[in-house]
UniProtKB/TrEMBL annotation:
Residues 326-424 form the Enhanced intracellular survival protein domain. The active site is at 146 (proton donor), 429 (proton acceptor). This is UPF0256 protein. Homohexamer; trimer of dimers. Residues 209-321 form the Eis-like acetyltransferase domain. GO terms for molecular function: aminoglycoside N-acetyltransferase activity.
Amino acid sequence: MTIEIRPIERAEVRAYLQVLPYVNGLPHWEPAPAAWHGGPEAWPQPPAPATDAQLDAFAERVFGGGFFPQAAFVDGRLVGGSAMLAMDITVPGPRAVPMGGVTATAVVATHRRRGLLRGMMQAMFDAALARGEALAGLSASEGGIYGRYGFGPATRRTRWEIERAEAAFADPAPTGGDLELVGAAAARAAWPQVHALVRRERVGELSPQPGRWDRLSDESSGTAGPMRYLVHRTGGAVDGIAQFRLPWSSTVEHTGTLVVEALEAASPDAYRALWGLLLDFDLTRRVVAPARPVDEPLRWMLRSPRAMRVTRQSDSLWLRILDLAGAIGSRQYTGETGLTVEVPPDPMCPGNAGVWRLDLGPSGGSCVRTGAAPEVTIGIQALGSLFLGGHSAALLAAAGLIRERRAGAVAALGRALRHDPEPFNAFVF
C-alpha cells in the first residue's frame, strides 16, 4: 500500500469533493442535540447529494483563494480530504491575528484508522506555520476526534428558549435608534458591516469567508418558512441585525415558535431594541435562539432571569497552538505575571516542547526558552483551551490537565489568561 499526502490539483477537485459527507448527502454532525440548531428535531436532515452544477460551484471556491486543501491518496486513489481556511481570530487586546481554520475533513469508510487524517493534519500544520499562522482552529463535528491532534475546546455556545409571556424586561425604558424589517438584499449589505464592528471587540470572533451572506434569500424553505430580517440603525447607520424564522408546525407543541437564527449588535441600544421586538412578536408564544453566547446579556435584562432556559450547550471553536512563542506574543494579559512553564513533547509541532519563561502583562507577552525549573506543566491541548481566556486553569488542573509544581502557579496563570466576557464566535466553519 502506497500512501501519499499532498495538495490537490485542479483536475482532482471533484474527487476531493466527493469524499466529503455533505457533498454526498451523508450525515456531517454527530447524532446528538446540537446547540446551533433551532428546530424541534435533534439535528437537521442531511442535504441531498450535490448536483453537477453544485459541484462546479464548490470547485470554484476550492481554488478561489484562501482555501488550502490537502488530500490522502492510497495507491493513487483519493480517499481522504481536508483543508485550511485563511482566517483571522480576535484575541484579547483585542487584536485580530491569523488563524488556519480546519474544515472539509473526511476519510472514506474503507480507509479509516490508517493514519491518513493525521498525515493531512501534519501537512496542514506545516503549511500554516510556513504562512505565519501561530494558531489553528476548527468546529468539531464529533467531540472525540480532535484532541489527539492537540486541539482543545476554547469557546462555547448555548441554545435557549423563553416563553413570550415570561419575557418582560425589568426596565422597559425605550432605547435610541430605529428598527426596520428589511428584505434579503438589504440584509446581505448590512451583515458584513455589523459583523466587522462586532468582531473588533469580541474575543473569539472570526473573520467571515468571502460570500458568507450571499445566499440569504426571501424565499420560503419548506416548513421552515422564509427568513426574515430586522435591522437597527442609529443616526442612519446600521449597528445591529437579526435574522429569524416563523416555521409552520403541525403540532400544537411547536406552533407559534420564533427561531432567532442569528443576532449581532454593535451597541447596547441596538442589542436591547432587537431583542425587545423579537421577544414580543405578534402571534408567537415562544422564542428559540440557538448558537448564542454562554453569558448572554439578555438574561440580566429580564424581570425573571430564570425565564431564559438553556436547553442545549456545547463546545464551539476548538483551538490548537502551532507556534507557542508566536501565540503568546499575539495577545494581551491581565496584570503582570512571570511564570516558568513546561510543555511536554508535541510530536506534530515539536518546536513547542520544552521549558519556557512567560512574561505576561497588559502590553503583551513574551515566551523564551529557559533552563530554570518549571512552575507549571501544561500540555498543548490545555493551552489551546485556555488561550482565549474562556476557561478556568484551576478547573483544568483539577481534571489532571495541568500539573502545579509551585504553589499558586496555576492561579497566577489562570488570572493572566482569563478574559471577561467569555470568548464567543457567532458562526462555525
